[in-house]
Structures are given as C-alpha cells and as structure tokens.
C-alpha cells in the first residue's frame, strides 16, 4: 500500500516544541487512517538554511510538506484539503458546494487572518526589547480573532456544525494561546471546543499540540 511521507518538525528536541502546522497533517492522516511515515526535520539544520536540501522539496523551508507517491504538496491548508478530498468517506470536507465553501472559508481564515494575528502577537512579545504599544495592539488584534471564533462556536460543537478540516486547521494553532499567557475564560465556547478536540485519538497523536493543551489544562478543565 502507498505510504504518504510527511515532512514534519517533531516536538521532541525542537526549541519551539515542534511544528503545529505539521500537526495539522498528522491529525488529518490519523483521522483518515491512511498509512504514513514521518520524515523528521531539524528546524535549524534542515529548514532555516536557504541552501538546505529540503528547500528543493519545499522552497519556503517550512513544514508540513507531504509526498504522496511522488506528488509533493506544501501549505497545511492545501494538504488538509487534498487529504480530505482523497478520502471523502472521512467526512472532513463535504461535497455540497456551499457547505464545502464554508469549511474552506475557515481554513483560509486561519492562514490569512488567525495565524498571522497570533504570530504578530508572539513576535511582539518575544522581541529582544518588547515595545509595550506593539504588544498591546497585536494582543488586541489577536483577541479580536478569538472573539470571531468564539462567536462562531456558539451553540455548536464544531466550527461548521460538524467536525471538519476547519477544526483541524484552527484548533491545532489555538492552543498556542496558552503558551502566550492568554486567559481564554472570556471565550468559553473555544475552551469547550478545545476540550472536545483534546479527547480525539487523532489529536493525541500530535504531541506538540497536546503539550500546548496541557499548558492550558486549568482553563480547558
Ligand atoms: N503557511 C505555512 C506555514 C508553515 C510554518 O510556518 N511552519 C513552521 C512550523 S509551525 C516551520 O516549519 N518553521 C520553520 C522554521 O521555524 O524555520 C503552512 O500553513 O503550512
């Protein structure tokens, strides 16, 4: 049987605790039950140098990348969509045109709005000399994306009402909030959603995300 190769930065030994974007691919691969093998990369040695051999596979030098029998694909959102489309019985991406568009809307939102807001806050906080005003404004911008997510989760267990690649794309990143010292109690729908995700065996196969969840265990409950 064909094995999918996943280029990933694993949690153990990585200064940043592993690739959360890579975890999205791990979770989806676990969900669909397809055989895969992890090709573990070292962030500093294999990803960062612009002349590293991995750049031939992914010119961005980031993870994840998959190799499905010679078909190379990078960008976590595109990988989630590909894996779900290749395995329609997983139900992770509906076939109905409009339902599908809604799921993809949230996957795109993660890449274009949510993750950048989180990263801007992270970089402001971890700057060698953090600028108070920048920390405050980037924090406010990220909290506003959390507000959008919390509202979307009101009255439903998952972002689109049912478990989909939108939950994988956004959930794998959301728990980083705990490492940034954020109090998510004003966003109770997010906390109960994270509690549901944390229980899934597919998520438990992604140690980087599990460790972020662990950092928030007092809040998640
Ligand atoms: N937009 C990309 C972002 C991928 C990304 O930034 N991956 C990080 C880990 S989560 C990475 O590999 N960083 C390499 C580095 O820090 O040098 C995606 O969603 O796949």
TrEMBL record:
Keyword vocabulary terms for this entry: Transferase
An MF annotation (GO) of this entry: glutathione transferase activity
Domain GST C-terminal: 96-221
UniProt cross-references to InterPro entries, sorted A to Z: Glutathione-S-Trfase_C-like, Glutathione-S-Trfase_C_sf, Glutathione_S-Trfase, Glutathione_S-Trfase_N, GST_C, Thioredoxin-like_sf
Family matches, as Gene3D superfamilies: 1.20.1050.10, Glutaredoxin
Residue ranges annotated for the GST N-terminal domain, each copy included: 9-91
The EC number(s) this enzyme carries: 2.5.1.18
Family: Belongs to the GST superfamily.
Protein name: Glutathione S-transferase
Organism field: Cycloclasticus zancles 78-ME
């Amino acid at each position: 049987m064909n094995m999918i190769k996943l280029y990933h930065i694993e949690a153990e030994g990585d200064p940043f605790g592993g690739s959360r974007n890579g975890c999205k691919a791990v979770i989806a691969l676990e969900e669909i039950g397809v055989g895969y093998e992890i090709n573990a990369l070292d962030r500093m040695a294999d990803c960062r140098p612009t002349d590293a051999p991995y750049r031939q596979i992914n010119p961005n030098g980031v993870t994840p990348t998959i190799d499905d029998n010679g078909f190379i694909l990078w960008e976590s959102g595109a990988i989630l969509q590909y894996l779900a489309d290749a395995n329609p019985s997983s139900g992770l991406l509906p076939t109905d045109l409009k339902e599908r568009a809604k799921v993809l809307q949230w996957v795109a939102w993660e890449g274009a709005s949510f993750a950048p807001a989180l990263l801007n806050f992270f970089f402001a906080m971890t700057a060698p000399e953090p600028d108070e005003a920048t920390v405050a404004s980037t924090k406010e911008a990220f909290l506003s994306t959390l507000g959008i997510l919390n509202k979307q989760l009101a009255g439903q267990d998952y972002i689109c009402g049912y478990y989909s690649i939108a939950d994988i794309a956004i959930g794998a990143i959301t728990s980083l909030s705990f490492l940034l010292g954020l109090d998510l109690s004003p966003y109770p729908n997010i906390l109960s959603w994270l509690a549901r995700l944390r229980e899934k065996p597919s998520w438990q196969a992604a140690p980087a995300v599990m460790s972020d969840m662990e950092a928030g265990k007092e809040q998640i409950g």
